[in-house]
Amino acid sequence: MHQEWSRLAAIYTRILENPNQQLDRYFNSFKDLAASRPLSELRTVEEAAAPASDMVSGADGQVNEVVVHSDAAEQTPKPISAGSTDAEELEKYVAIREELYKKAKEFNSKILGFETAIRRPYFHARPLNVAELENWHNYLDFIESEGDLNKVVKLYERCLIACASYPEYWIRYVLCMEASGSMDLADNALARATQVFVKRQPEIHLFAARFKEQNGDIPGARAAYQLVHNEISPGFLEAIIKHANMERRLGKLEDAFSLYEQAIAIEKGKEHSQTLPMMYAQYSRFSYLVSGNAEKAREILIGALDQVQLSKPFLEAIIYFETILPPPKQIGYLESSVDKFIAPNSDGSAADREDVSSIFLEFLSLFGDAQSIKKAEDRHAKLFLPRRPMSDSRKRYAEDFLSSDKMKLARSYSSDPSPGQSLMSAYPNAQNQWPAGYGAQPQTWPSTTQAQTWTPGYSQQAAYGAYSSYGSNYATPQVPTSVPQSAGYGAYPTTYPVQTFPQQSFAVPTAGTMLTPAQQPAAAVPQTTYYGTY
After folding, report:
1. What is the CATH number assigned to the segment(s) 119-199?
2. Which domain of life does the protein's organism represent (predicted)?
3. Which end of the chain is more exposed for a tag (fewer CB within 10 A), N or C?
């Protein structure tokens, strides 16, 4: 409107440097502008007055173009040549911007999927869904792999508009800026996170303490921990552990012990504190691993038993801790605590009580004597084994096992061209499962290469071969109806009642094939029952 053509051309140049959805429209508008105005009106004052020292002379006597990035001012790439006409210079002027346009277009095609997945680019108190959070992480990974710090910073700033309430993105931003050497940007991002956007979340303050410790700001790290202890989340176990570990690294061992003792004293004043048992366990472990005083560590645990409510995590912790302490093992206080917890009238659930009893049995099998093991096993059997029914998971496992065997058997019939293939290839040990001498009676059947007639019923009966496991090379396994399908392998009665099955037509044996007396079926069972026309 003001006919500021040089500034308009600079704006177009800046637009064409950045990927966006309207690149084609802007580039066409720029070409229209370049075609309608002379080059002298399109160049900025800075371009026209560029000193000769900014120009790089080519070998052919021409002066190569000078490209000036226009991030701070309206400076544009400028071709300058000594003896060329205005038309040639204008062509070069447009060609430079066309190259910017093509690069931005190519880059836009790479990030289009990430941009499309951004459903909420603005801030809202409602949480983002998992797909959007994952998309931001993937987008940041891609931009960081490109290696352009300017683009990385811009994308992080965009991301932290929509994800301002998520500490992990602030932490990632700080670490990325630290890795790139931009400590000013890292400190700025950390200050915004801890003082404004996620200042009520302990995670960001714990990160700030570690970050400051690594960079030599020990008072700042202590201040971050104290802020969590006093205001953000008093009694937060992770903050206490990390603070104590930092003091140990600094050689302040007494200060580290004092942190645990102060936190335990505060938690004792709370009714039904859930943190106190694990705080005792962690304090005992810290004391032993740092100072090597096993007796002090045991005293802490034994003193805690009268102060805390027994729970599965606490008992697991003290049993495990006793395993790493040097001998002799102190089993007495563990046994009394386990007895109290697994009693039927205790507050723990049945599953937790049984788990603790099993863990204690394992501990005793490693460090106990025969009498203590027998006592614990008898108690475990009395409390838990008689009333334990077959769980649903075991039933489901049995059903899955059944269906797996049926599928294997069905595949064995469908994949082999010979229908008389024996089931023994899939179950080589099945012949030992016949009771009452059935497996010891070899049978001579016609060669499987001869044709045999199958009835439609075999498609269903074949599935029971996994349970019948006939010991001979029967081509058509059958299951007597008197035996339940859920019976275990080989759990067949010693004698079979006479069952009537439809007559089956089998191929006649070849001449010369005779059944020896040892191969004849038992007389108590008629041949017509199982062997069809034989």
Report:
1. 1.25.40
2. Eukaryota
3. N
